[in-house]
Amino acid sequence: MKSTDAPKERRGGLRFAFLYFVGVAAVVGVIALAAPGASDEAAGDTSAPTTSHSASGGEAPPAAPGEEPAADAAEVILPSVVHIKTSTGIGSGVVYGASGLIVTAAHILSGDETVTIRFDDGELTEGEVVGVVPDADVAVIEVDMDDLPAATFNVDKPRVGQMAVAVGSPWGLESTVTAGIISAIDQANCSFSGCVSMVQTDAAINPGNSGGPLVDRDGSVLGLNVSIFTGSGANDGVGFAVPSSVVVDYADSIITGEPIETAFLGVEGDPDPAFSDGRAGAMIAEVIEGAGAEAAGVEAGDVIIFLDGVAIQDLPDLQAQVRLHRPGDTVELRLIRDGEELTLDATLGTRPNDSG
Asked: Of the residues 77, 83, 91, 191, which has the maximum number of CB atoms within 10 A of its CB?
């Protein structure tokens, strides 16, 4: 079976789930993180600002700086996290610029042009959707407000094992904080139209968290939470976030009005791993005429094992890594051909079904 951009479920019987809370049915299959029902009432309650960001509660003595890193991170990021109510449910977002810009997950918007935004202090306002990139699950919303508490985005790759804090509105419970670690990076999530490279975390995220930030111990955004991988329909400790590098790249393009184009290598193959000389990789069945792969010298039967130094496990991993780039970028491919390892440089083109 050949695969190019078709989404597919992976890893046995587990299911991807987006994190947009639209009801019980939303937690089955690919779960988006947003929420309906009681959350609508909560979104309209302006009687008191949310207080779940307190670093310490009751009369307990405050911890010294650094002794409660999750609490310190939450204190930094919570003023920048917003609750988003759409026509179909709720999700989360994070302030991207002081001049009224908010980034969130594209899948929570359901085609809406306007949404209701609630800030951490309880203030409500209307937000206008500026643009969306469904393939990367990134969207930008604008509100008519200035001097917003903009978050800091860390576009460097996180370290596996480092602390991670997720913030959002799971099940409509606003300004909720959970903590865990970065479980993996460069994980191919194929619940989109194609495969996207994600950051994986075991911090608890659930429907309603979609679009909310995953942050490091300094409160800097590592990515936007968008989906979970589940065998039960609920959180099983395997969550995914769009990396900040991708969020910033696409958000800036939306804001400046640049055309959104997806990089294209130009190969087809079997989505299952190919093992050559005891190594996993992406087995190439066909090279698209005129594409960057052909110009670089990639041939049918080659097994691509690295792209720019990142190990490739299978074709979905290759697709996900290509999507981290833009058309015109040159990438280094390491591949196995007839038992020998070769290195080729390929210049990426634009995916044919993109407009513009």
From this structure: 91
pLDDT in tens, 206-218: 888 899 999 999 9
At residue 224's C-alpha, the angle toward residues 193 and 77, to 5°, is 170
Choose one of 260, 293, 320: the last residue of a domain. Answer: 260
Write out the catalytic residue numbers. Answer: 107, 137, 210
Give just the sign of the alpha carbon dihedral 25, 26, 27, 31: positive
With beta carbons less than 8 A apart as the criterion, state whether 104 and 98 touch.
no
Whole-number Å distance between alpha carbons of 221 and 197: 17
In terms of Cα–Cα distance, which of 140, 122, 39 is closest to 82?
A: 122
Tokens (6 digits) for 307: 């792209």
Q: Are residues 29 and 163 in the same domain?
A: yes
DSSP state of 13: T
Contacts of 59 (CB under 8 A, 6+ apart): none
Query: What is the per-residue pLDDT across 41-79, written as a single tens digit (0 to 9) for each?
Result: 333 333 322 223 233 334 545 656 668 999 999 999 999
Q: Work out how many domains the chain is built from and give that number.
A: 2
Per the CB < 8 A criterion, the answer to whether 245 and 155 are in contact is yes
Residues in the chain: 356
- Distance from C-alpha of 88 to C-alpha of 23, rounded to nearest angstrom: 9
**Contact criterion met (CB below 8 Å) for 298 and 281:** no
* Domain CATH for 336: 2.30.42.10
Q: What is the pTM of this model?
A: 0.76
For every residue of 121-157, DSSP letters joined together read TS-EEEEEEEEEETTTTEEEEEES--S--PPPB--SP
In sequence order, what DSSP letters do the residues of 49-112 get, joined into one string? ---TT-SS-TTPPPPPTTSSHHHHHHHHHGGGEEEEE-SS-EEEEEEEETTTEEEE-GGGSTT-
